[in-house]
Amino acid sequence: MSMLQIINIPVFKLKGYTFITINFNLKEKMKVAVFSSKPYDQKFFERYNQNYDHELAFFDTNLNVQTTNLTRDFDTVCVFVNDKLDQKVIKKLSENKVKHIALRCAGFNNVDLEAAKEYNIKVTRVPAYSPQAVAEHALSLILTLNRKTHKAYNRIKEGNFSLNGLMGFGLKDKTVGVIGTGKIGIAFCKIMLGLGCKVIAYDVQPQEELIKLGVDYLPLDELYKNADIISLHCPLVPATKHIINDESVSKMKDHVMIINTSRGALIHTEDVIKNLKEKKIGYLGIDVYEQEEEIFFEDRSEQIIEDDTLIRLISFPNVLITSHQAFLTQEALTEIAQTVLQNIEDFKQGKQLKNQVEAG
Ligand code: NAD
What we know:
By secondary structure, the protein is α/β, with parallel strands linked by helices. Helices cover 34% and strands 16% of the residues.
């Protein structure tokens, strides 16, 4: 390999001569509008952008029909889970000459891929950012709900050293049902196997690696019937929307624990509230909520929350809600920033986009 190739300057050889190919457009910086950005996004993006030199503008607002005017003069919009890129927004992006949507998350259910295709806007994502981060957060929801450490913390702060009401159950030998065994599901299965649980799973594409480790793939109804804890790690697609509903819960064990770190709409919230009231569901741990766009990621402590369904959920002593924070580790933020910036660089250089998502 020549020195030029080592420093990443494209070269080609013809009849023994080496030619350098320079694309002058490459000198222009990519203008990137980063939506729904928080101080931690800015910190990690600015740190790793030193290796790329894209022109980044950070907006704390969501990207939606009302805010598309902000995208004028930008080549790329960088968006997160609660930016809604429907047909109307994508049409506006196209009118504003945006050519690339760089998701800084794995899921892409919030982007109308058909519309992106129609308007010739490329969509890239971060397929994996520390699956371990989300798997470990699912475990933290389980342990907190079970051993009630959140209650113990508050009690001790108030000088209450009583143990009444703090009894949990042992995880060893309990049966954990995992729906969706992709990158996060695999990491989660391994953690639970390590704790001595029996792990059963359902996925449209079972993983040989997990079968070898002793995970049993079962039909969904069998999983519902046998699991003490059910954790959702599948994407939100038509087949999985409201997969946890009155009917599926009726097939589960009494006092089952349900954990959702994937997407809010996997759960039919009203049905779950009914089953919490009837004590069929014993514990619910959620990092995601179907109507989270209007609420999560912001400090609303001085506001009146108008979402009565969420307030009902918060009121249960056996429900633990976190605000879509499962991904939030230093390792994951590093991986997100590096992958998004590289996706933008690949787009700029006209390279094949290895993290592209497309309709069809
Ligand atoms: P992945 O694509 O690696 O795995 C998804 C798995 O679900 C695959 O094995 C797939 O075969 C399976 N699946 C697809 N359709 C299914 C169905 N109908 N029934 C059962 N299984 C089905 O994705 P991943 O990286 O493991 O992420 C899983 C989900 O976690 C993402 O879709 C995203 O919604 C969510 N997520 C949440 C956070 C967070 O911070 N809370 C962060 C990252 C990802």
